[in-house]
Amino acid sequence: MDLTLPLLGDVMTEGTVARWLQPDGAIVEAGSPLYEVETDKVTMTVDSPVDGRVQWLVTEGDTVPVGAVVARLDEVGAPAVARAAEGHTAAERVDVRATPAARAAARRLGVDLRQIANGRRIREADVLNHVPASAKVAGVALSGRRKLIAERMRSSLLRTAQVTESMEVDMVDALRLREQFRALVVEERIPGVTDLVIRAVVLALREHPVFNATFADERLRVHAEVHMGVAVDTEDGLLVPVVRDVNGMDLLTLAWRTREAVDRARTNNVMPEDVNGGTFTVTSLGALGVDFFTPIINPPQVAILGIGRITERKTMYLSLSFDHQVVDGAPAARFLQSIKRYLELPVALVAQIDR
Hints:
This protein has 9 helices and 18 strands. By secondary structure, the chain is α+β, with helices and mostly antiparallel strands. The protein folds into 2 domains: 2-136, CATH 2.40.50.100; 160-350, Chloramphenicol Acetyltransferase. The radius of gyration is 23 Å and the shape is elongated.
């Protein structure tokens, strides 16, 4: 039985076999974890569909197209499966917690992960820091999710005509609204700055729906529902979980659902459906002290909003990147003005206003 690389997302074209979880030639039961597949969005474990003896056809770290055969399962008798299951615990190898990117780097550089085990999950940076400077002179090739993210970013720039506009926002009243919530709700339910911005974006998209759209095959599709992607910095790289139907949520519900999505991303507890289908994306570097930047659109979406830091004057820059194939600079500026207006008049973020 041939095992092919599964399709894990609507725009996925390839994936990396990040790690084999069974030795080549091992006898496995149906449902046993076989390997980890890594895309630019998510890392997933693929289980064996049937009993059998597994034969690797690709090596760890190989990137292959969706549908490519990565392994073969040869049928074996029930007694052999039972014996293999009995001996599994005794033969189980001592393992080290590490990200797929760290494992790929360790293979390239000949690093034994057990030598740098530090009680937490090893990251790629830990592996690179362990390698002597002389060994790094030749450079390190990108692999795994980092390679896929790089390819996706290059593809975004090739497929879109990206333009970025920035606008300063007075956040005094919005921050005062956050403080008022402290008297009403528990700490973990208080909306953060990103939540306030997302709510303002939702309201602004009602006035400027062309930004809640996808553009593919020369066709623009404007969406009625807002499925908000939220960029998250994780140990394995950038993930963008999607919070669905945010246009139907009040501010507190939106904040709660966004926090759940971010927590799942940071613990690598996401499924393919959690990172696909977004119609607009927000990303923030404010916590790292960045004022404004150029966020890269996540195709087939047509826009992404970057959030900068809150300054000492309680102002903040928003940076909107948009596809000039779809929309011009003046409508983009008016969209930014709408977001700015809602943040500077934050009663709109919590009120039900009929016009």
